[in-house]
Amino acid sequence: MKNQALSVNNSRNSYPGSLKPGWLLLLALLFGIAGSKTVNAQVVAGIDYSDRAHVDNTFDMAGQDVFGQRFASENLTIKDTVTGVDILALTTSRHNNSKIYQDHPQWTADGKYLVFRSSRAEWQYYAMSMDTYEIVQITTGENNQFLHLGWKTNNAYQIRDSVLLKLDLGSLLKDSENGNVNSDPAHYETVIAELPEGVRESGGTGLDADEDRLFFASRIAKQQSAIYSIDFKTGETIKHLEVPLWANHLQANKWVSGEIMYSWETGGDAPQRIWSMSVDENGKVTNRPLYKENAEEWVTHEVFADKDHIIFNVMGHLDRLQKKPSGVFLMNIRTNEVTRFDQAGKGGYWHSDATEDLKWVVADTFDGNLYRINVETKEVEMLTAGHRPNGPSPFTREAHSHHSISPDGKWLLFNSSMLTSSDIMMVPLHPKGVDLPKISW
Fold it and tell me: Is the peptide bond before 407 cis (omega within 30 degrees of 0)?
């Protein structure tokens, strides 16, 4: 969508009819917002503002679903008054902005763009440059759920309207940088397969480590699900397993082909939360529970930490849950060995993630504080505070951090309600020149 400049007579007091300058400007703004095109900077009262044509193209004033549209950065650096760490607020608009869920990749494979969702155009996906923080819209239309970024390629995969699509995100972002995005999204999309009639994705998707198939969960009945995969070469949809539960939060092990993890979803505590399914080269399926929990444990927010480990939380926010050991658990899924990090105060930890070298863990509490934990010494330090100011309950309408550590182990990405109901922020995992507060629970 190209911009349209509004011509204004540059002679003082020579406005058409009886319109005054303020009214003319108001009409121009209304035309730009209500119409299908945007008003550019212009010559007004003899002054040429054409070099500022970008200022009207802001997230806060747009609200239009336009594929490929590009926006100026809106990042803001904030000094954490508790820890002294510089917080990088990546989004600061009046809309709800949310990072991709913690069990899926957040950045393009080359690390140059962060991908997130926003309500500014009916929950589309956007990509933000890590160099300039400029933003480009990368999806359009309805039913944009579960966009899965490639592990090794700058592609993205999505099941939309029962069709599995591959989005050439690398080409789209390059065209956006050069200002020549094709307005037809199909130009960047490849149809991989159509789902069989009656089959739909309803429990998450997981891209195989070899990036040659996509696993997904489908809820067949209230307490019954099936797990499928779609072969990228043949387009064949294969049913691997049926389970007598609601399978949700499906995620793939990015290091091990054919291995996925999923949860027994109940909307609260589950009898046995974490499950693993693996498919060998001959198609043999193995399905088993991971971390066999007891009735007094509430397990949640599991993610892969490396090829052999998962990390998750055993909750301690209720009196009845504090009778057994709880906290952050790091588990070797080959040997079942578990390392536990003691529970936090203020209701306990909620979400967790680990660096891929397994040297550091980050966990948060309900009041929106995030803590760095040394895996070897178990020393706890506060990284940043105050991201759920109305806490410490999990049931307030504030953002869930769902934090993720960058693949290089340098940054912590999370949702925050510090500025608005939900923004996306980053802090360095190892901030320089800052003595982080040491915590003893």
Answer: no
C-alpha 316/C-alpha 92 separation (Å) is: 33
Tell me the percentage of the chain whose pLDDT exceeds 90. 80
Helix (H) or strand (E) holding 21: helix 21-34
Nearest to residue 311, comparing CAs of 274, 281, 259?
A: 274
For residue 2, what pLDDT band results from cuts at 50, 70 and 90? Answer: very low
Quick check: helix, strand or coil at residue 332?
strand
- Structure tokens of 104? 């899926």
Q: What is the pTM of this model?
A: 0.88
The residue ranges of every structural domain in the chain are: 1-56
Structure tokens at 407: 């693949």
Dist CA 147 CA 242 (whole Å): 24
Residues 287-301, mean pLDDT to the nearest whole number: 96
The tokens for 176 are: 């956006």
Exposure class string for 40-59: b at 16+ Cβ within 10 A, else e = bbbebeeeeeeeeeeebbeb
Quick one: average pLDDT of 96-105?
Answer: 97
Three-state secondary structure readout of 99-140:
ECCCCCCCECCCCCEEEEEEHHHCCEEEEEECCCCCEEECCC
